[in-house]
Amino acid sequence: MRYLTIALAKGRLAKNALEIFENIGITCEEMKDEKTRKLIFTNEELKLRFFLAKPSDVPTYVEYGAADIGIVGKDTILEEGRRLYEVYDLKIGNCKMCVCGPKEAKEKLKHHELIRVASKYPNIAKDYFYNKKHQTVEIIKLNGSVELAPIVGLSEVIVDIVETGATLKENGLEVLEEVCPLSARVVVNEVSMKMENERITKLITDLRNYLENKEK
Ligand SMILES: Nc1ncnc2c1ncn2[C@@H]1O[C@H](COP(=O)(O)OP(=O)(O)OP(=O)(O)O)[C@@H](O)[C@H]1O
Ligand SMILES: O=P(O)(O)OC[C@H]1O[C@H](OP(=O)(O)OP(=O)(O)O)[C@H](O)[C@@H]1O
Asked: What pTM did the predictor assign?
């Protein structure tokens, strides 16, 4: 039996995802050591390998088959646009993709003015404004602390993740429009889905049974 390889988005989602795997009997003790510099972890008994990768790289590993399965946010899936199957919503890391800005920007949005939109997610922003709203905008790619952009005059609005709303509030910004809800998803390589169907289906069934029972 060959190893099934699972790529986990490191950062916010990893801890909860590992906890879920543990609850369905898939453990990887070595991975819990926060000091380790090791990148890949093996469970010999279950013939599974885990690795942690930068969230935006997870869909790439899965599309190319370097990982059979990935756990990654819906935001990253939409942004990266890779060929893969999205098979299950883990309902962790729940948040929303939103258009945000100062109150005054609401009118500019409403009247379809040519505004600048800063975002870590340029493809999601482009899809929302061009395809859903049929509105021409200028998109400016940033890599983090996106809330700064409207404050210092780089853009009129931002497209960013909102969870509690605390970052927006502390910076005098608000949600102007909601783009879509987000959560962590299980994604699967297209070939692995056929070649390893039985093992992958069992894993997803175990995840579903555990999470549905937990909800009750
Ligand atoms: N408040 C939040 N802010 C950002 N992402 C969140 C939040 N809540 C849940 N998430 C989920 O967690 C993922 C981001 O995790 P994290 O913030 O650790 O990575 P990142 O900072 O986007 O990654 P990178 O280091 O590549 O910039 C998102 O893809 C999203 O699905
Ligand atoms: O609604 P809240 O609960 O305040 O969470 C949302 C904030 O958290 C994320 O930023 P992150 O901490 O990942 O930093 P970054 O913007 O530098 O990526 C996101 O980009 C928002 O800024």
From this structure: 0.96
